[in-house]
């Protein structure tokens, strides 16, 4: 461990002092396997997190949310009788079961289980409509307002902006969400 820390510290100092010239030397010093190569690693995408979660706990994804270096994935079994809260490491893809509840009422998940558009398809549709990275995908069957069931998808653009959209659970049609609270919040922020 001390050797890895020393090698990493020495490489950092070399990069600071020698700049790009030292980059090649630091990379070749790392080929002996003394420290993991960070540049070659890519973060686990939303789609990959969904696939890993479903491989660990088969069913239908109810929600997916990125929090730092962890994807939180909620999965409902295909019979609707169980629910699992999983965490997927965004760097390694390793899945950890946080909580499993086998006492679910299947009728509560009827609309989700019957949806033609999955969470993964909703994420892909939202990113196709608004380029970026899917960050949150949540099932919304709240029909109190008369709307059909849909997926709420948050996409983060490469410029750092966040876009919220809805994906129809039957057609896959993507629409931008409007939130009157966020509009009034931004107005009050501008006035302060």
Give the gist of this structure.
This protein has 192 residues and is α+β, with helices and mostly antiparallel strands. It is built from 6 helices and 8 strands, in the order H-H-H-E-E-E-E-H-H-E-E-E-E-H. An 8-stranded antiparallel beta sheet has the order 4-3-2-1-5-6-7-8, covered by helices on one side.
Give the proportion of residues in helices.
25-40%
Note the run of SSEs as H and E: HHHEEEEHHEEEEH
Number of helices: 6
Q: Strand pairing plus helix content: what structural class?
A: alpha+beta
| Major beta sheet, strand line-up | 4-3-2-1-5-6-7-8
Q: Taking all residues together, what is the mean pLDDT? A: 77
Count of individual beta strands: 8
Report low-confidence residues grouped into runs of 5 or more. 1-40, 179-192
Sheet with the most strands?
8 strands, antiparallel
User: In whole angstroms, how far apart are the ends?
Assistant: 51 Å
Strand content: 25-35%
What is the overall shape?
flat
- Rg from Cα: 22 Å
